[in-house]
Specification:
Helix content: 25-40%
Strand content: 15-25%
Shape: globular
Radius of gyration: 17 Å
Oligomer: single chain
Bound molecules: 6-phosphogluconic acid
Largest sheet: 6 strands, parallel
Structural class: alpha/beta
Distance between the termini: 28 Å
Strand order of the largest sheet: 1-9-8-5-2-3
């Protein structure tokens, strides 16, 4: 197991600053090296601060015109539903940066889940073909991940059978009853692992136990939380505030 890189920062703003710096560098590097960048966004609330910083850099500061936006997961709701991860990304980032519409590849949460999963898998495979990315190569330049207090990441929940998937890139899953909406679409571990850079952002006291568990990475794979089973091409970097890291 390659130990993840741990970066502990003062608070949520510092985490967002560091994340924005790293995302910007990875975008520039990808476009310089390969002519385009594929950026996978995460959902929930943590990304809002990061998105605000990417927007504040200025529309022309980053190579948005050469960037493809994909999503790590989506709730099965229409885009204008307040629970939609695409809706949050559109409101906080995509409406403010010049990514061509055709390069924003959203998961269709408004479709029946199984159909939405199949269609997104086809969308990602078409993207890989268009970019000339071979099966074993990284498709995503940056994968952004969060983690719930229960240790889920994207919409991969601890103990869920979706974690055993080895070939499909997108699955429809049912979140635990504590989560609404329960029907979700999610990238699988094999898909999330097709990343050059994986950044996990987590902050706040409610994440502390899950962070400690994920970083412990028990020997038994089934005991290891989903995020600890994402194997990007490079080391995964955790950007944590002091509270989530258990330092405060
Ligand atoms: C989702 C997200 C999920 C998120 C965690 C953390 O659809 O819920 O993709 O994986 O990253 O739930 O969410 P917060 O950032 O709101 O704590």
């Amino acid at each position: 197991r390659i130990r993840p890189e741990l970066v502990v920062l003062a608070d949520a703003d510092a985490v967002a600053d560091e994340a924005a710096t790293r995302v910007a560098a990875a975008m520039r590097e990808a476009v310089a090296a390969r002519g385009q960048c594929v950026l996978a966004l995460s959902g929930g609330s943590t990304p809002r601060r990061l998105h605000a910083r990417l927007v504040a850099m200025g529309a022309e500061a980053l190579p948005w015109a050469q960037t493809y936006i994909v999503f790590g997961d989506e709730r099965c709701v229409p885009p204008d539903d307040s629970a939609s991860n695409f809706g949050m990304a559109r409101e906080t980032l995509l409406a403010h940066v010049p990514v061509p519409d055709a390069q924003v590849l959203r998961m269709e949460g408004e479709r029946p889940p199984a159909d939405g999963a199949e269609r997104y898998e086809a969308t990602l495979r078409a993207l890989a073909t268009r970019l000339g990315v071979a099966e074993e190569d990284a498709l995503f330049d940056v994968v952004l991940l969060g983690m719930g207090a229960d240790g889920h990441t994207a919409s991969l929940f601890p103990g869920d059978a979706a974690l055993d998937e080895t070939t499909r890139w997108v699955l429809d899953v049912c979140a635990p009853a504590t989560y609404a909406p329960r029907d979700r679409l999610t990238l699988t571990l094999p898909a999330l692992s097709r990343a050059r850079t994986v950044l996990v952002l987590a902050g706040g006291a409610e994440k502390r136990d899950a962070v400690a568990h994920a970083l412990r990475g028990d020997a038994d794979a089934r005991e290891t939380l989903p995020v600890a089973r994402v194997r990007g091409r490079a080391r995964t970097t955790w950007l944590l505030d002091r509270v989530a890291a258990g330092h405060a």
